[in-house]
Amino acid sequence: MNKIMNAKIKWLTKEQGGRQTLPQGDKYAPIIRIANPILKSSPWLDKDDAWSLFVENKKSISDYETIAEIRYLSDKAPDNLKKDVKFELYEGNKLVASGVVL
């Protein structure tokens, strides 16, 4: 399933180790890690369970907060983008943002 969802994303600043500029357009595809309260050892899925998704910023809330459309690149991705699900976005192993599905 490859549905489009809206999300509120808080981007890390360059000083926080994040991106120098916010991504533009519809071709930005970071790795997403979904919060998973079922796992007792860690609230985040293992790195092997990470997927890539398209992020398209639609509206700026503040300098480093946006409302974006998100969707997985692969149709084989899990159906876990649901309201109130928290996530983190990575470029490789570098954390660049955190967010919540609206």
Question: Would you give an account of this structure?
Answer:
The protein is mostly beta strands and 102 residues long. The protein has one domain (5-101): Translation factors (Elongation Factor Tu (Ef-tu), domain 3). It is 0% helix and 44% strand. It is built from no helices and six strands. It has strands at 5-11, 31-34, 51-62, 65-72, 86-91, 94-101. It has a six-stranded antiparallel beta barrel. The radius of gyration is 13 Å and the shape is globular. 20% of the residues are buried.
Task: Describe what is shown at a glance.
By secondary structure, the protein is an all-beta fold. It has no helices and six strands.
Mean pLDDT: 87
Strand order of the largest sheet: 1-4-3-2-5-6
Question: Describe the biggest sheet?
Answer: 6 strands, antiparallel, barrel
Instruction: Please identify the top-level CATH class.
Output: Mainly Beta
Number of helices: 0
| CATH fold-level label | Elongation Factor Tu (Ef-tu), domain 3
Beta content: 35-45%
Q: Overall 3D geometry?
A: globular
Classify the secondary structure makeup into a structural class. mainly beta
Q: How big is the Rg?
A: 13 Å
